[in-house]
Amino acid sequence: MISPLSKHVTDGFVGDLGRLLTRHANRVWNYLRARYRRFRTPKELRDADFYLWIENLNKCRDCYFLDPNNGRPTCDVCGCFVETKARWMSESCPLGEWDNTVHLRQRIQDLANPYQSTNQSHQPSEQ
Ligand code: SF4
Fold first, then answer.
1. How many domains does the chain have?
2. Residue pair 18/6 in contact by the 8 Å Cβ criterion
3. Domain hosting residue 64, numbered range
4. Distance 98 CA to ligand 1 centre (A)
């Protein structure tokens, strides 16, 4: 049940301010977690190759949750800048549209077992 007090908390200026602060706090928290995951990734594997990056960006471009944000496109779900997020190998789309961590795990596996390599280097998909 919604208490009469909650209406005053969620409506008007205080409510707007609360939502804004929550949104920015989430954004900062997501950014710090992404930074930490990137820090834990081996340096030479931190960035996606050009084709994977573009493929991810194409999926973001067609996504309902993409906010153009004056030329700095942002994901409305996680609050991240998608051009950066799509390049970092430790990241994935919060809705599962793309996942760089799968490619990262494959690369790490290939480095660990060079003679059993199942290396399927990323190629642009044919459509
Ligand atoms: S990261 Fe995922 S949810 Fe966010 S804009 Fe890209 S495709 Fe959409």
1. 1
2. no
3. 11-116
4. 8
Angle at 54 between CA 25 and CA 124, to 5 degrees: 140
| Alpha carbon nearest to ligand 1 atom 4, residue | 75
**Residue 123 within any structural domain of the chain:** no
Is 47 part of a structural domain of the chain? Answer: yes
In which band, very low, low, confident or very high, does the pLDDT at 119 lie, cut at 50, 70 and 90?
Answer: low
60: confidence class by pLDDT, cuts 50, 70, 90 = very high
Give residue 34 CA to ligand 1 midpoint distance, Å: 15
Residue 127 lies in a domain: no
Nearest-angstrom CA–CA distance, 118 and 110: 7
Record the pTM.
0.78
Q: Read off the pLDDT band of 69 (50, 70, 90).
A: confident
Ligand 1 site residues, Cβ closer than 6 angstroms: 59-60, 63, 65-66, 75, 77, 82, 93-95, 97
